[in-house]
């Protein structure tokens, strides 16, 4: 949503990712059909900074993909912190697991493979930070299940909430993913249990605080 020249300027003035993340991005581009799903350097650094500010003890990630955002979020974990990341595709999870080992976080990150809507209710209920970046048509379902697992004062982040500008394009509302994002945005906007801000970062990021 940001002018490309301004985005490039912002990226040039943002700390570069480490060598491992750069390698992971390259492998994702080579081995997956939709590498655009990767968080990438700019959003990844933002996620890392948010995590470092919160210093969460428990993080839940809904949508691992190849693990880029997982690694970024893990950098802010408290010393005794743990992270659970959910991925429906075992091939993506296998790539991620290899990089978690190389990043030295394999003992702090648990990968669960399967449908997040079914897995979330089984988890403990004391997460400090939740990051949603999975099937867009299911965002509201992920949010509602995750909400009850977040401590009061905890945070939920949701990616792609501007969906390449389609959220304000009436012609795109028949697309299931666009419709899912629009329904999620409206649902959160009307939720009196939380505070929220929609940030025009990359493809849009909703930052939500549970009251």
Comma- or semicolon-separated keywords:
211 residues; alpha/beta; seven-stranded mixed sheet
Provide a descriptive summary of the structure in words.
This protein has helices at 4-12, 19-31, 40-54, 68-74, 90-103, 116-119, 139-147, 176-189, and strands at residues 58-62, 82-87, 109-113, 127-132, 150-159, 194-199, 205-210. The chain has 211 residues and is an alpha/beta fold. The radius of gyration is 16 Å and the shape is globular.
Order of helices and strands: HHHEHEHEHEHEHEE
For the residues shown, what is the average pLDDT? 97
- The Rg value, from CA coordinates, equals 16 Å
Helix content: 40-55%
Let me know the number of strands: 7
The proportion of strand residues reads 15-25%
Q: Layout of helices and strands, plus pairs?
A:
Layout: H1 4-12, H2 19-31, H3 40-54, E1 58-62, H4 68-74, E2 82-87, H5 90-103, E3 109-113, H6 116-119, E4 127-132, H7 139-147, E5 150-159, H8 176-189, E6 194-199, E7 205-210
Parallel strand pairs: 1-2, 1-4, 2-3, 4-5
Antiparallel strand pairs: 5-7, 6-7
Helix pairs in contact: 3-4
């Amino acid at each position: 949503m940001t002018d490309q020249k301004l985005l490039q300027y912002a990226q040039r003035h943002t700390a570069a990712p480490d060598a491992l993340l750069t390698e992971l991005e390259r492998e994702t581009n080579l081995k997956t059909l939709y590498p655009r799903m990767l968080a990438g350097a700019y959003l990844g650094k933002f996620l890392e900074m948010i995590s470092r500010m919160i210093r969460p003890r428990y993080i839940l990630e809904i949508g691992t993909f190849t693990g880029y955002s997982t690694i970024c979020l893990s950098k802010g974990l408290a010393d005794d912190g743990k992270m659970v990341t959910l991925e429906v595709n075992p091939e993506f999870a296998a790539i991620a697991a290899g990089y978690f080992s190389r990043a030295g976080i394999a003992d702090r990150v648990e990968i669960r493979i399967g449908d997040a809507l079914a897995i979330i209710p089984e988890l403990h209920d004391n997460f400090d930070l939740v990051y949603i970046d999975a099937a867009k048509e299911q965002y509201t379902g992920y949010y509602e299940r995750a909400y009850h697992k977040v401590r009061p004062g905890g945070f939920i982040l949701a990616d792609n909430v501007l969906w390449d500008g389609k959220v304000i394009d009436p012609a795109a509302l028949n697309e299931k993913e666009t419709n899912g994002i629009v329904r999620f945005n409206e649902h959160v906007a009307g939720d009196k249990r939380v505070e929220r801000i929609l940030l025009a970062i990359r493809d849009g990021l909703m930052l939500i605080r549970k009251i």
